[in-house]
Design goal:
Blueprint (H helix, E strand, L loop, with lengths): L1 H23 L3 H12 L12 H17 L4 H6 L1 H26 L5 H11 L4 H8 L6 H31 L7 H29 L3 H21 L4 H14 L6 H37 L3 H28 L13 H9 L5 H9 L13 H30 L5 H25 L1 H4 L3 H13 L12 H33 L6 H19 L1
Length: 523
């Protein structure tokens, strides 16, 4: 019961902190971390410990699924180079650098635990990146690279983390076998993700209830994550692949479902993030109680790790810029200014916190895991350094760099997509056999409405019952034709979403507007 009360309190606290963060223009996850860390010392707050084995399965699936829904396969085909360099190789480089620094700075830390710390602080978080980068005038190309990096780097970090923890618990070593293990796990996870997407798509065709179909998308990430982990594949990759494939399989007529699902997942993402950051804040209470004055001895090691995290990312981005090829237009980063921006946006988030909480507190023989408190304290500090500082200074940095943005290109692209959707809707309406049965004036009225994609107009029925019935029949036909045309427009946008070079978020904006018009029509 105490845990349930604490959970409800964290949920309410998340809502309040989100409002406070909007007013203060600060990222709400960090405010939630600080708020819960302070509230944890109140006398009426119960002492609650969650099984570390439950942390990753509870928090990672919904947040990864929510973030992956905003991407598409075309983005991965277009950004495969950045995906390999940032989501795999940069994670390995950061893990190695942090592990070396921690092992040298903290004499009592075993090498496997130092490697686990490196894996914890290595992966930037796509949710944190989007929360901050979306508030400044940053080029869509840069935001897309950061989001793509954040979706798959967790997989590499978790494989290293799990191998390091197993070695720390048994007294063994961590070897290069993590790389083939990651590749095998990723390949198997891709198959599982595709299978789960097919299963959910098949179920949705047999389930007429809109709420049940939306609920299936909540069950899917948990199911595929647990299944993947059970057979020693990558649960992270399986969840992301499931989300991407379900997006590719989206049907044009599922407009109301998309709107419901988007709102549902926005709520899930917000509350899950808030609870996770709140639990880490509460965990800080136990660290402070356990270590007391010894916390001051952590400062040199923590500072060294934070410096390593920032410098490794900057050096890696600079290397990508220097050796990225001769075609600067299509590579990222494409300038020294972009190097600085991408380096500054290496924001750690929920994955770092979840891995820190998932670190066992005792070894296999029941002895306390020495160095765990240092690891958790370091993870929280790295998160503050990489999330709060960029959140406060990124707008000023963007103004100082005067980095050209592509808002004009973005608007032109969005207008072109909207015209493309409207053109297909009008052509479909003209070819409709049902439209031919309408009186000429009604066809003209329908064409005017479709030209602006406005909602259907309400007609004033006359008192004559026969004329009223005829008008109802006409309006029903008009509704059917308009719905058919809008379905065709949405199908064209779903096709555009999977075409290389199209930004899926821009396509989704047009798609959401089409969905809104259909829901208005249906109701």
């Amino acid at each position: 019961m105490e845990f349930l009360l604490l959970l409800v309190g964290l949920l309410f606290g998340t809502v309040l902190v989100v409002g406070l963060g909007e007013r203060m223009r600060l990222p709400y996850p960090i405010l939630m971390l600080l708020f819960s860390a302070g509230a944890a010392f109140l006398p009426f707050i119960p002492e609650v410990h969650i099984n570390p084995e439950l942390i990753l399965p509870l928090f990672l699936p919904p947040l990864l699924y929510a973030a992956a829904q905003r991407s598409s396969w075309s983005i991965f085909r277009l950004r495969w180079r950045s995906l390999v360099l940032l989501a795999v190789l940069l994670v390995l480089a950061t893990t190695a650098a942090v592990a070396g620094v921690a092992w040298l700075m903290v004499s009592s830390m075993a090498l496997p635990l130092a490697i686990a710390l490196g894996a914890i602080v290595a992966p930037p978080d796509p949710v944190a990146v989007e929360a901050i980068a979306s508030k400044v005038k940053m080029r869509r190309r840069l935001i897309t690279v950061l989001q793509t990096e954040g979706l798959f780097n967790d997989a590499m970090a978790i494989v290293i983390f799990q191998a390091a923890v197993a070695a720390a618990m048994s007294g063994g070593e961590v070897g290069w076998n993590v790389v083939p293990k990651f590749l095998i796990g990723a390949a198997g996870a891709i198959v599982l993700g595709l299978a789960m997407a097919w299963l959910i798509g098949t179920l949705n065709r047999f389930v007429p209830n809109l709420v049940a179909r939306s609920a299936a998308t909540l069950v899917a990430p948990y199911a595929v994550y647990l299944l993947a982990e059970e057979v020693h594949f990558s649960g992270v990759v399986a969840v992301v692949v499931t989300a991407l494939e379900l997006g590719r399989r989206a049907r044009p007529q599922d407009s109301e479902e998309r709107l419901t699902r988007t709102a549902f997942w926005d709520v899930v993402e917000l509350l899950t993030t808030g609870v996770a950051f709140g639990l880490v804040g509460i965990e800080m209470r136990y660290i402070i109680q356990d270590e007391g004055a010894n916390l001051f001895t952590f400062i040199p090691g923590i500072a060294a790790v934070c410096a390593a995290v920032v410098l490794v990312r900057f050096g890696w981005m600079m290397a990508m810029y220097k050796i990225g090829g001769t075609e600067r237009k299509n590579r990222t980063p494409g300038s020294l200014k972009e190097v600085l921006v991408l380096s500054w946006c290496g924001m750690r988030g929920l994955a770092t916190l979840a891995l820190a909480l998932a670190l066992p507190s005792a070894m296999a023989d029941g002895q306390p895991l020495e160095g765990r408190n240092f690891v958790v304290a370091t993870a929280c500090t790295v998160l503050i350094v990489t999330l709060v500082l960029p959140g406060l200074t990124l707008p000023a940095l963007m103004r100082a760099l005067k980095l050209p943005h592509d808002h004009a290109v973005e608007e032109r692209t969005q207008r072109a997509l909207a015209r493309r959707a409207e053109k297909v809707a009008l052509e479909t309406m003209k070819r409709s056999k049902a439209a031919a049965a309408l009186p000429p004036e009604r066809r003209q009225s329908l064409a005017r409405r479709m030209s602006s994609l406005h909602t259907i107009l309400e007609a004033d029925f006359e008192k004559d019952p026969e004329k009223m019935l005829r008008l109802k029949q006409i309006l029903t036909i008009m509704d059917d034709v308009q719905r058919e045309a809008l379905d065709a427009a949405r199908e064209e946008m779903l096709k555009a979403r999977n075409e290389p070079g199209n930004d899926p978020e821009l396509v989704d904006r047009v798609l959401r507007r089409l969905d809104l018009r259909t829901v208005t029509l249906d109701h």
